[in-house]
Amino acid sequence: MAVGGGKIKSIGAAQSPLLGFAMFSPALLYIGLLIGAPFVLAVFYAFSDARIGGGEMHYVGLENFRSILQSPSFRKALENSIIFTICAQIIVMVCANILSIALEKPFRGRGLVRFLILLPWVAPVSLGTIGWKWILDSIYSVITWVLVWLHIVKPYSGPYWLGEAKLAMASVILVHCWRLIPFSTVILLAGRTAIPKEIPEAAAIDGAGFWRTTFQINLPIMTPILSVAVLFGTIFTFTDMTVVYILTAGGPYDSTQTLPSLAFATGIQGSDLAAGAAISLFLVPVLIAIAYLMLRVAHRSEVI
Questions:
Q1: CA-CA distance, 304 to 283, in Å (whole number)?
Q2: What domain range includes position 177?
Q3: Has residue 147 been placed in a domain?
Q4: Count of CB atoms situated within 10 Å of the CB of 190
Q5: From CA 279, how far away is CA 276, in angstroms rounded?
Q6: Cα 222 to Cα 102, 121, 213, distances in angstroms
Q7: Count of CB atoms situated within 10 Å of the CB of 73
Q8: Interatomic CA distance for residues 208 and 218, integer angstroms
Q9: Alpha helices in 123-222 (DSSP H)
Q10: Is 112 helix (H, G, I), strand (E, B) or coil?
Q11: How many domains does the chain have?
Q12: Does a structural domain hold residue 106?
């Protein structure tokens, strides 16, 4: 029996790595097919002269990267991406912190309020952005109608929200923040509920008020959670194309063009797959650097 039991243990030990690999293989297959294969294909295209409907492809080395770095459209898109990401993350983190504080304490109707706040994130991004395009329309904008009703602007002389460079960028940032704030709010709310109740209570006994408790106790404790929220928010913002494409398609005059939308316009709409792939690959080292910095901050932070 002892020998038999030993055989059973040895068989189980031998099968456990195979069982673990079998359970993990669907995730590996998903990553390989939907992420790995397109990435390898993009690298292959970036070093070639591939075009939609073209003939044979030829190796051109770093020529595509040299050409896009010299392009004014690329430099403008890179500048817009940085402005878009920084401004959106500042707004998102401020609003998400305010909402997480407001939703932490129980009150009547809190479940309904949480549901309504989550709707922008749950709803399809294209559907929500199309709704915002109507809201920001130059003729039918409800915002303009309200401004006319308040006698702030004259009829038929309202601002062109998506037709002026600065207003168009502000509109794109606004819509993206509307979509991303619920996601960051959920992350920060989970972090706030994980803070031991004894710490704020002890601070209150020592005379710490709301602002001191928030900035000197809660936020330092939540630094790892904040880093995760900023990391995901930065990745979602820097790689977002849907909002820009639906609202402005990069216009007017490339004033809202970002790297993802420029890659799509160049590679798909412009039929230059090689240049589009080179632009999209430029996002990879930038996002890796951002992820490394955010994870280092989270790693060095102490979690109580």
A1: 35
A2: 72-136+164-300
A3: no
A4: 13
A5: 5
A6: 16, 23, 12
A7: 15
A8: 12
A9: 125-135, 142-149, 165-193, 198-205, 210-213, 219-221
A10: helix
A11: 1
A12: yes
Which burial class, exposed, middle or buried, applies to 171 when counting CB atoms under 10 A from its CB (0-12, 13-18, 19+)? buried
CATH number at residue 189: 1.10.3720.10
Most confident of the ranges 47-61, 180-194, 196-210? 180-194
**Do 222 and 231 meet the contact criterion of CB atoms below 8 Å apart?**
no
Q: Structure tokens of 295? A: 């994870």
pTM of the model: 0.81
Verify cis geometry, omega within 30 degrees of 0, for the bond prior to 252. Answer: yes
At residue 273, the pLDDT reads 87
In a domain, 5, yes or no: no
Looking at residue 110, its pLDDT comes to: 81
- The span from the CA of 158 to the CA of 94, in Å, is 29
Looking at the domain assignment, is residue 13 inside a domain?
no
User: Judging by beta carbons within 10 Å of its beta carbon (0-12, 13-18, 19+), is residue 96 exposed, middle or buried?
Assistant: buried
